[in-house]
Amino acid sequence: MRNDTIVAISTPPGIGALGIVRLSGPEALDIAARSFDPVGARHASPLQPRHAHFGRLVDHDTGETVDEGILTWFPAPNSYTGEDVVEMSLHGNPLILEKAVGLLCRLGARSASPGEFTRRAFLNGKIDLAQSEAVADIIGASSEAALRAARRVKQGDLSREVANLREEIIAALGYTEAVIDFAEEPDVQEHARVDIETRLKKCESMITGLLALHGKARRLREGSIALLAGEPNVGKSSLMNRLTGRDVSIVHPTPGTTRDVVREWIEMDGFPVELHDTAGLRPTSHLSPLTSHDEIESQGIARTKDLFDQADLIVWVLDASAPRGVRSVEEFAQWMNQANGSLARSIFVLNKSDLGSTVDLSWLPSPSTDVVRVSALTGEGVGNLRRALGEKLASGIQSNSEMLLLRPRHVQSLEMARASIQECRNRPLGETAPDLLAIDLREAVAHLDEITGTISTEDLLDRVFSDFCVGK
Length: 472
Hints:
Blueprint: E1 6-9, E2 16-24, H1 28-33, E3 36-38, E4 52-59, E5 64-74, E6 85-92, H2 94-106, E7 110-111, H3 116-123, H4 129-140, H5 144-154, H6 157-181, H7 186-222, E8 224-229, H8 236-244, E9 262-268, E10 271-277, H9 292-307, E11 313-319, H10 329-338, E12 346-351, E13 371-373, H11 382-394, H12 408-425, H13 434-452, H14 458-465
């Protein structure tokens, strides 16, 4: 029910210094006034809008003080939801917060469902559907880059792009109506044909540009996979520990120490990265008959090979203490060939630079191949490696000021709008009845309206808000 009053804890689960309980709805102020006793109120009406009031939350049926805290009232329509909103800042003990919610429910509120506060903000015209989804993306952002991209959608950048697309299509739709109304005017027909084609070509290009952000947005939302690969004992595990700042991988001079894939999340130049430390690459044919140790190592190498195709970035670790950086150039080249198309997503790292300075790397695939020299032991060059990794991950991704965090739902709507536009462009004006063109264009507009919620259904809203936290 949209006309009832809802309540929920708006801060994350667990113990904290503060916890916020939020009310929204027509009875929010009345329920708060019947449960909250301000201390030292100086006004006839003690709860003033947009003022912080210190007082006690009291269960007047029992006389028990639930907690002391701060209450703030935001009257409609100037609130997050567009309704009367009351926020109580209490001590962040889950027992206190749950007791506060229980008390407010007994006084007439209802426990909010996931995302219901933001859903009401959408239904009351405070934000559109794309902006509503961006609230969840802001909360869940795992890096600075993802946060900036989600904030752009929340500020309406995606909605403005969609609105510009919509205006172009509506204008083209207007010209199809002109063709119908002025069927006997050849000049009008020709002008309409040129204008429709120009506008739809522009729209198709705009949609293609937005869709190109989808794969890039996936990197921001889900993170990239970076693989530390190389021969045994080149220092991959030491480099893993240095990059993560933790001892997540076992370091030992015995070859084959790393058998399974070790994973750890880090942030690299604003991008979330799942860093994988992998088993050292070496032929397993010499390990026959296999011992149990060799069998495990062999499986670890197989898992490394399986990850080649999944990785967004492969960090090939070389050994500065070896004359050519590797024990066998031929064997190493075979590993790189198995990682099909990996050079565009590869970085070569010469580790153990504290042990050697002259290494013949002329065998590398390209004379222009950049090699970052580091020492995982001393930390020398690790800062340069971090910058190189960040630049490689960012290559092909728009600058932070241009990125938009698209969702699969947005992508689907844009693809369907583009298909309708392409269908219209495949029906040349003059050879096709203009009312058929108008049908295609109206379909394109309807698909765009699904993004911002101009046209929405209960099923769509349920799907959008189902992954929100309760207090949002």
